[in-house]
Amino acid sequence: MEQLKPDATGIYVAAHQATAAIEEAIEAEVPLIVAVAEHIPLHDMMRIHSMLQSQSKSRLVGANAPGIISAIGKCRIGFQPLPTFSPGHIGIVAKSGTLSYETVGSLTRAGVGQSLCIAVGGDVIAGTNFVDALKVFEHDEDTKAIIIVGELGGTTEEEAADWINDYKRRVNNPKPIAAVIGGFEAPHGKVMGHAGAWVGLGEGTAASKYKALENAGVTMVDHPAKFGGVMKDILAKTGGNVKKTEQSAAHQRRSYHTSSFTRRPGFSARPSIVPQQRRSLHLTRDQSTNLLKEYKINLTVPPEGSPSTHYLGISPNRSTRSPSIIASPTANASTLNQRVRRFPFDYRSGPSSETIQAAIAHMQLDAAPPKAKAQTVELIKNLWKLYNEKEAIDTHFKLALSVESDEMLVYEPHLFFDDAAFKSGKRQADLHTLRDQASISATDREAEEAGIVYIPLGSPEFPAGTTQAWTQTPPSSTSEEGPRNLIGTLVNGAGLALNTVDTLSLRLSQPPYSTSAANFLDTGGKATSATIKTSFKLILSDPRVSVVFVNIFGGLTLCDMIAEGIIMAFKEIGVEKPVVVRLRGTNEEKGQKVLEEAKLPIHAFDDFEEAVRKVGELANARGL
């Protein structure tokens, strides 16, 4: 690197090699570093960001991102599907790769090209966030309008909304902005495919993110397939030259429809750089008790009628890209999200005395008895030691002041550890052997072994003329009176899977329909025909499913390979439920031809809305 002095570098190696490669690029002061690998251990990334914050030469995009592409400048660092893109004037920033492909595909089909597309990625901590991208788009002369593709997890959407409000106050003719948010129907407490797709304490939901952007004057859509028409109208209203972008996109649009990737014998089309893993290890109460005791944190039973309860923990601060103390003066569930605050600190140096004292003051313990206050300081230090040494993601517990002894009582711990440290980094083996294998269902085990993220969703109720009310009845215990007309979803990409579940609920949970998704299923980054067959098996094991909806946007995932997997499922599993398939993207025409020649009872669509309507009709018919 010293001889070449590159302006940018792409880190394409697997997660267990990516950390060293990123650190080498930072040390070489490469200005732009793009990392695509999924599931780099969180603590590796926090150490990397500590390094980045101590210098001003390098910027990181990713990790867990398809990269950055300038369609207008014909330059890509990453693996976005090139035929989908066309040169134009729409800047895009997205967490989800597949949702960004959907967005680009919709724009290209509408004759609206793209300028710069930045995939910030779906990890807990992103090297580049939405505000960083918006600042670039503001000053980019080739960008005339902007699209934000967000999802649940973190606060980058809310921060973007704040930036947009300020931008509109200080600029006479601000560039128009549109957005989509995924994750409205995500069950609480689940990691939804992307490592960062979970809601931490004090973080907003998909609904609150949507509202924040809407209040900032952003044009909101519920599915990225709508962006083509929406942005075409916006450009026309703001004086953008739509015809010029249509002409520049014409060749790419034609290529997008007919794009083909031929697999060579002995060559795997699946990337080895983005393995799909479950990223969660929660300990039982007994296991938590024993581990905390090793770090001089002793638990008690929850105190009865304590007048003073507090909340304390350590968790990532996604905004500062560092660990933070999380603290609240109350542990009351009804107000905890509003009262909790984060106190960030440098990963390599740990929490300073000033940071610890600020957290204690926020918990309203700065006037506590000296014994209790000193104990709280030690609790924070010991918890940080555990968090750091065991590579935790989220650790917290409740505190109460004992009036009798002036001691802090610690109870109800929550310890959440990073699977990637074990699976990618080959570390923390002793901790991960604590996982209760007997508690893992056969369905979960099969999904995990196949690299599939499969999460059954609660059963809905449909009172006449009203919106659904969710229950939490798991599929294994669904009563005979429970729903039998739900939709099994099979999707490639976590963001697209989130949005598919959201859209099915929005379109089909009210009259004339009365159905919604039975599950979230992301086939994973290394999906094969065998993966698709296994996905069908998982979906059809749920007795509530009456129709299967396959929604694919092929980037690295090839549509003809998906089609072959569907046929394999029909032959080897015996699919007796109706199947609706929507194939878009790489090799879509080949995939459609494979399905057509198979002569199977499959309803194939190109348009998303048409496919959803057909799914609703079939589910209604099965529910009669």
Structure description:
It holds the Pfam family Ligase_CoA. Residues 316-326 have a biased composition (Polar residues). One of its GO terms (cellular component) is mitochondrion. It contains 20 helices and 24 strands. The protein is an alpha/beta fold and 624 residues long. It has three domains: 68-258, Succinyl-CoA synthetase domains (Rossmann fold), CATH 3.40.50; 292-417, D-amino Acid Aminotransferase, Chain A, domain 1; 451-623, Succinyl-CoA synthetase domains (Rossmann fold), CATH 3.40.50. A seven-stranded mixed beta sheet has the order 5-4-7-6-8-9-10, with helices on both faces. Helix 18 links the parallel strand 22 and strand 23 (579-585). Helix 3 (97-109) packs across helix 7, helix 17 (529-540) crosses helix 18 (559-572) and helix 18 runs parallel beside helix 19 (588-598).
How would you characterize the largest beta sheet?
A: 7 strands, mixed
Q: Give the overall shape, derived from the CA principal axes.
A: globular
Query: What would the average pLDDT be, to the nearest integer?
Result: 89
Number of structural domains: 3
Spatial gap, N to C terminus: 67 Å
In DSSP terms, counting alpha (H) and pi (I) runs of 4 or more, how many helices? 20
CATH architectural arrangement of the largest domain: 3-Layer(aba) Sandwich
Total count of strands: 24
Structural class category:
alpha/beta
**Strand content of the residues, in percent?**
15-25%
CATH topology description of the largest domain:
Rossmann fold
- How much helix, percentage-wise, in residues? 25-40%
Low-confidence stretches: 248-279, 465-474, 476-480
Report strand order across the widest sheet: 5-4-7-6-8-9-10
Question: How big is the Rg?
Answer: 25 Å
CATH homologous superfamily designation of the largest domain:
Succinyl-CoA synthetase domains
Indicate the CATH class of the largest domain: Alpha Beta
Biased composition (Polar residues): 316-326
Region (Disordered): 242-278, 306-326
Organism: Alternaria arborescens
GO molecular function: succinate-CoA ligase (ADP-forming) activity; succinate-CoA ligase (GDP-forming) activity
